[in-house]
Amino acid sequence: MLFVVLVLLALLLITADLNWPRMRDARAYLSLVITPLQWLADVPGRVADDLSDLLVDRSTLLKENEQLKSEQLLLERKAQQIAALTAENIRLRELLQGKARVEDEVMLAELIGVNPDPFLHQVILNRGTEDGAFVGQAVLDAGGVTGQVIATTHYTSRVMLITDARHAIPVEVNRNGFRAIALGKGTYEEIELEHVPDTADVREGDLLITSGLGGRFPRGYPVAVVTGVLRDPGKPFSMVTAKPTARLDKSRQLLLVKTPPQADTTLMAVDGETGAGNE
Amino acid sequence: MSDARPGGFLIIFGTFLVGLLLSQLPLPDTFEWGRPEWVPMILIYWVLALPHRVGLGMAWIFGLALDLLKGSPLGLNALALTLIAFLTLLIHQRLRMFPLWKQALMVMVLVGINQLTFHWMQSIAGNARDSFMFMLPSLVSALLWPWVFVLLRSIRRTFRVT
């Protein structure tokens, strides 16, 4: 008897969770109980990191320091040009009477968990609605776009990576602005461009950046590098595969883009409840 | 569960918490598919050992906790765990008589049912599964069962949970 009741209750919950957006709030509150467990599961990894920090020897540190310094020098050189380029860009935009591009603000977040289900590419970050995270927020790492927030609780948020089999991201080829949609395939190493005509100018080695269409990802962040273009006359479209530039399965420090994209608020309407101002 | 001594309850609760924790612990990529299903195993043990105390209700609650952890639709693991708790309750008297390796075989079947229910319901929910590798954890769980069983039994005996 109890069995039947519990099974029915579970089925009811599943249907409610799938079809009723309000369940998201209920879930956030229930997750408060679970949050300490998620933190706890992260402790061994954190301790191991700290230990390896403690036990590292002087020569490696010196070497790393040197390497970082030279890297910094290179980046600074690039940054020098960026200041000039930004100024020029703003001037040109003013000439064209276009809207000035706002710089995106970001919030640092740390990875505290990975979804154990191998079919889903999801990670859990230590920022929640209390810190200003919201559903639909773009997530970056040092290399490029990592994914987007799909669920938030008060102190954590769940991020779907761009390689998840259910994820799609609008991109464009940096070289010529050709637009396409990149689909995740369920492996960390590869994403795929959908519906690319045989005549499209896409080559191996092309950098794909976010196109900003769809209004979810801010424009201009690197997503992937094209690794293969297969033009099979027997197929309606060419097969274009690309390797994500973000270190999806390795990054621990991630960035949440703070400014919600201005374009197309209708797409975000479903997610509006989480309290992200989108004006 | 009404005449339960509070101490014993804490022990049972604690083992489940450890199980939840273990199910979240990061594993190297090579073992990604073979993660043992700790919570179902712990549930099977307690139902086997103390069917008058640990049963469907507990299975349901911890299933819900597992759903929150995994981010699956609420109630999915609750359903799967309730199902295997029910099955274990049905056969617990026979299961107790089995030698460990035979028990392990039954655990494989039970965890397999858990996996099937979970992944089947996941694909209904729209998270398509495209390989049968998700059955691997049942095998791994069966291989680990003798150790889990002996460990939990010694925990139960040291703390005299009845």
Strand content of chain A: 25-35%
Number of separate strands of chain B: 0
CATH class of the largest domain in chain A: Mainly Beta
Q: Encode the helix/strand succession of chain B as letters.
A: HHHHHH
How many structural domains of chain B?
Answer: 1
Number of domains of chain A: 2
What overall form of chain A do the CA principal axes indicate?
globular
Largest sheet, spatial ordering of strands of chain A: 1-2-5-4-3-12
Give the SSE order of chain A as H and E letters.
Answer: HHHEEEEEEEEEEEE
Count every helix of chain A, treating DSSP H or I runs of 4 or more residues as helices: 3
General description of the model:
The complex is a heterodimer of chains A (279) and B (162). Chain A is α+β, with helices and mostly antiparallel strands and 279 residues long. Chain A has two domains: 54 residues, no CATH class; 158 residues, Thrombin, subunit H (Beta Barrel). Chain A contains three helices and twelve strands. Chain A has a six-stranded antiparallel β-barrel. The longest helix of chain A is centred in the N-terminal third of the chain and has 38 residues. Chain B is mostly helical. Chain B is globular and about 45 Å long. The N and C termini of chain B lie close together (11 Å). At the A-B interface, helix 1 and helix 2 of A face helix 1, helix 3, helix 4 and helix 5 of B.
